[in-house]
Amino acid sequence: MEPKNSIKIFDNKKVRSVWDSEQEKWYISIVDVIEVLTDSANPHRYWSDLKIKLEKEGSQLYDCIVQLKMQSSDGKFYKTDAADTEQLFRLIQSIPSPKAEPFKQWLAQIARERSEEIDDPEQGIDRVLDNAKTIQTLENSNE
């Protein structure tokens, strides 16, 4: 895999992602998705409990989860549970949240934008610059 780390913004929150150019898929941090959908103070614990619940229900979703190195808030890279968009759609169904539907639409938009970037790389450059400005604004407001 030739990873390309990226940060996406949903509802003014960072969602870490990695583009796999070989499989042409985005992999997105599950913990970040859980934090966005649940506003949980401890999204790692929520994910741990959800994995246990899914396993008890016989779901094979967890078998498809991959661990990829993603940058943490301390600037270091750690292995993080990640899922592609198809897996995330299934996972989101297990999380009761009023943000679920807007998040699904956001995921679909990411896929569409990536397709557009392949056709017109200049759009990708513009999108990266816009995201960088948004991330900088978020970081400044959190200081």
Describe this structure in words.
The chain is α+β, with helices and mostly antiparallel strands and 143 residues long. The chain has one domain. It is 51% helix and 24% strand. It contains five helices and five strands, in the order βββααββααα. The protein has a five-stranded antiparallel beta sheet. A hairpin with a 2-residue loop joins strand 1 and strand 2. The mean pLDDT is 80.
Layout of strands and helices, then pairs:
Layout lengths: L2 E8 L2 E8 L4 E5 H9 L4 H14 L9 E6 L5 E8 H8 L7 H20 L1 H22 L1
Antiparallel strand pairs: 1-2, 2-3, 3-5, 4-5
Task: Write a concise keyword list for the protein shown above.
5 strands, 143 residues, alpha+beta, 51% helix, 24% strand
Count of discrete domains: 1
- The percentage of residues in β strands lies in 15-25%
Provide the helix percentage: 40-55%
| Uncertain stretches of 5 or more adjacent residues | none
Q: Describe the main β-sheet briefly.
A: 5 strands, antiparallel
Strand order of the largest sheet: 1-2-3-5-4
Q: SS-based structural class?
A: alpha+beta
Q: What Rg do the Cα atoms give?
A: 15 Å
The number of helical runs is 5
Topology order in helix (H) and strand (E) letters: EEEHHEEHHH
Tell me the number of strands: 5
* Mean pLDDT score: 80
What's the shape? Answer: globular
| Termini Cα gap | 35 Å
How do you describe this structure in short?
Helices cover 51% and strands 24% of the residues.
